[in-house]
Design a protein that fits this description.
The chain has about 220 residues and is of the alpha/beta class. The protein has a single domain, classed as Rossmann fold, CATH 3.40.50. It has a six-stranded mixed sheet, with helices on both faces. Helix 1 crosses helix 6, helix 5 crosses helix 7 and helix 5 crosses helix 8. The longest helix has 18 residues. It is globular, with a radius of gyration of 17 Å.
Length: about 220
Amino acid sequence: MIQHNDCIAVGLSGGKDSLALLYCLTKIRGYIEQPFDIKAVTIKLSDTNPDTDYLKKFCENINVEYIVKQTDIEKIVFESREERSPCSLCANLRRGILNDTAKSLGCNKVALGHNKDDAIETFLMCISYEGRLHTFSPVTYLSRKDITVIRPLIYSWEDEIIQFNDKMGITPVKTLCKAAGVTNRQRIKELIEEEALINPNFKYNLFRSFTKGEISRWHEVK
């Protein structure tokens, strides 16, 4: 995922995954042979969401350049469009702005904090709502943007990331999203957790079903 002289824009939402990802990337710079640069980028959905004061201090403490991109995404999604299922539109807008910001900063890669649980949730969502076998892959080259998206936490379970943050004293920023807890993704997440209580191998088998098959280019991952 990381190569010689990469400049990586880390999407820093303030959630547990993005904070852990940024922290870990700063630490591994001293342990791998390839030199690379890191910039943290927060896409603000509104004037107050998320609260960037803590994130600014977090980046200062780990010596990472911090960039805040102000947007009206929250207003567009909840007021102008009045989306009943706002997550897809919001995610698309955030990704587009993050990629454009990364390019303007001279970055050739964007790092996202998606974890193993996110991958299987997306897999079931694509089956349920789109009728296709798909999820995001660990590495994706976006030819139109000429930028590569990497997901370094993709082999880490959500619980492992929570435990890591607790151990390192990393406190996630509370989400201010109006749709938090009532989304289709949340319902899929709860369905997975409910089935996992009955079948302990359920999440592992879901993950294996696309990592071992020719789905979303996972078979190309070495």
